[in-house]
Amino acid sequence: MKLTAKTDLEVPAAAVFATLIDHPAWEREAIRNGVEVERPAGTPAMGVGAEWRIRGHFRGKPRKVQVRIGDLTPDQRLVLGLDSPTIEGTTWLEVMVLSPRRSRLRVDLEVKPKTLAARLFINTMRLAKGRVQARFEKGLVRLGARIKDRYDRQV
After folding, report:
1. What is the pLDDT of residue 46?
2. N or C: which end of the chain has fewer CB within 10 A?
3. What is the pLDDT of residues 56-113, one digit of tens each?
């Protein structure tokens, strides 16, 4: 299943990208939300190959996912690989310059099931694709608002 969304921000593209790759801030926020985050030994702290093992609850069950940076083009693109016992996927985050003070953030998410239960879940999501897409877009708008808020506090 593939989802795509974009949002325009009144924030320079470099600041948007800097927020996206601020790993310590994302780790702290995940921990505040009750998610366990572990950095495997021997992986780089930044850049391609950086990796996290994440454990938390989703839909009432404990879940584990491994996130790895697969590609990184400074100030433009970040590709994250997702791997768990039930699904695998890829997220592409692209930042486009619209003007010196405006940018566009586009997110593409593609997930593939590994188990029969995950296949059933994803097929159910496909049936409700309109609602799933709307929630995905709303989540990106919230992320954009947080990026703008963070930028405004720094300036």
Report:
1. 86
2. C
3. 988 788 999 999 999 999 999 999 999 999 999 999 999 999 999 999 999 999 999 9
Give the single-character DSSP code of 110.
Answer: E
Contact between residue 147 and residue 14 where contact means Cβ atoms under 8 Å apart: no
> What does residue 44 show for φ and ψ, rounded to 5 degrees?
-65, 150
CA-only gyration radius of the chain, Å: 16
What would the two tokens of residue 83 be?
């791997």
CB contact at 8 A, 62 and 55? yes
Report pLDDT for 59.
79
Question: Residue 106, SS3?
Answer: strand
Amino acid occupying residue 31: I
Tokens of 133: 């897409």
Residue 135 pLDDT grade (very low, low, confident, very high; cuts 50, 70, 90): very high
Tokens of 76: 């433009």
**What structural domains does the chain harbor?**
2-154 (3.30.530.20)
